[in-house]
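User: My instructor asked us to take a sequence, write out its structure as tokens, and then describe one feature of it. I'm not sure where to start. Here is the sequence I was given:
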Amino acid sequence: MVGQAVLGACLRDAGVKAVLSIGRRSTGVSDPRVRELLRKDLFDVNVPDAELQGYDVCFFCLGVSSAGMREADYTRLTYDLTLGWARVLARVSPSMAFFYVSGAGTGGKAMWAQVKGRTEAALLGLFPAAYMVRLAMLRPVHGEVSSTRWTALAYRVFAPLAPVIQALAPSMVITTEALGRAMIRAARERPPTHVLEMRDLQALGSG
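Assistant: Let's start with the prediction itself. The structure tokens for your sequence are:
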């Protein structure tokens, strides 16, 4: 859903001139600014440099739930996959801003928090303009739907409660509209804070 949110925000922003979407499936978006690079295996990062040049920012929105996963498998799909692409982009465009969608609580004692913490640390050492997006609860407002079946079902069930939760715990919830706006604004302004907690995202996405 984060990828859908950021893509939607990019296309609503007249200042965004071109978008390259990399993924296993087509976005289904028809816009002259959008180009797609489809990969059956996302671990295959052997892409000609020319395909990746000319972009100012990478919004890395890939991720999986750690539920029921062994640490080795979660590390492969979180740390290894992210760093595989990050190292390529750092070589091709070392001055680009790299935004990694992490999670609130990263660096804590839980297995997923430790793995994401290691991923964050590696990215911060790789890009001068690396930003960690520590997202908590996301409220879809433009029809964004999770590609994970159980997550999509949970969002459908709890959708009517989302505005209530946001009213009761505003510091823990952000809309897809505000998140997309926050990430684009941060990409332009490159704030000095490289770990963006929910309060930072909400401030960037306001207005």
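For the description part of your assignment, you could build on this observation: The longest strand covers residues 19-23. Try explaining in your own words what that tells you about the chain.
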